[in-house]
Amino acid sequence: MTIGKSLHGQTVLVTRNERQAGVFQQKIEELNGHAVLTSLIRFEPTLTKEKAQAFLKDLENSQWLVFTSVNGASFFLSYIKDHHLHKSLSHLKVAAVGEKTSAYLEQHGLKVDVVPERFIAEELADALLDHVRPGERVFVAKGHLSRDVVKKTLIPLGIEVKEWILYETVKDEEGIAALKTAMTKQSFDFITFTSSSTVHSFMHAMEADAAKLAASGTCFVTIGPLTKEALLQYGIPSETPDTYTIDGMLELMCRLSERKLNQ
Fold first, then answer.
1. In whole angstroms, how large is the CA radius of gyration of the chain?
2. Which family does it belong to (predicted)?
3. Which residues contact 100 (CB under 8 A, 6 or more apart)?
4. In whole angstroms, what separates CA 164 from the centre of its chain?
5. How far apart are CA 175 and CA 236, in angstroms?
6. CB 209 within 8 A of CB 179
7. Which carries the bigger pLDDT value, residue 259 or residue 87?
8. pLDDT tens string 59-83
9. Hey, which residues does 45 pair with through a beta bridge?
10. Which of 35, 24, 34 is nearest to 1 (CA)?
11. Residues 6+ apart with CB under 8 A from 194
């Protein structure tokens, strides 16, 4: 990625799941930053083989397939592959919450019909209002912590919505222990959060020290408004990019680093 800016050697704590953190780390280092990874959450599949027939029936009876995250897309496609359900997808129109989720789906052969301009559930639900007709059925692939915004928006309009919980988010206790060790060994210029779950896991481990970190000049960066709100519940303010993506966070941190350098 080329942003044309630099992190000027700043140290960035990345708290997202280990499976997803590699790209973030690479981009930080490409921008002359130093990334420290601590996975605070992990994802576990919830669907069993016994649920395959019910899963297939709901897919076949739906006209729309909706994804609220890359994780939901990943677990969905893994389940489809494991249980040989690919033929059940050909009739479906697809909606994705953001460009990363859309790109992931299209890399795996699914054409995406709807992506909102702003990558949040409310915008996804509003975008679907322009495409889904009353009487149609919508299949939502999601995690157990995902909000039911799409369902609450569409059902009053006569649109049936079936939600399937494909994975659950749990604390990564090994990662939390590694975080505590890292915090005693070095300081951080930026601490980043890409979900409310990472915020809560971090604060569970470090709440007593978080206010001190903020007061000492560490900048907390959250990917979007919901994550920002989660951190504010603990009294910690954060910076949030205009575009709710990893690249948006990087551009924001580059601007903040430049500002700090020129002070």
1. 20
2. Belongs to the uroporphyrinogen-III synthase family.
3. 70, 245, 246
4. 18
5. 22
6. no
7. 259
8. 899 999 999 999 999 999 998 888 8
9. 167
10. 24
11. 15, 16, 20, 24, 223, 227, 246, 249
Tokens (6 digits) for 229: 């709100």
Domains and CATH numbers, the chain: 11-40+172-261 (3.40.50.10090), 44-170 (3.40.50.10090)
Query: What DSSP letter does each residue of 173-191 carry, written as one string?
Result: HHHHHHHHHHHHH---SEE
d(CA 138, CA 120): 18
Structure tokens at 150: 């799409």
Amino acid at 66: V
pLDDT in tens, 94-136: 999 988 899 999 999 999 999 998 878 889 999 999 999 989 9
Instruction: Name the token pair of 43.
Output: 């994802």
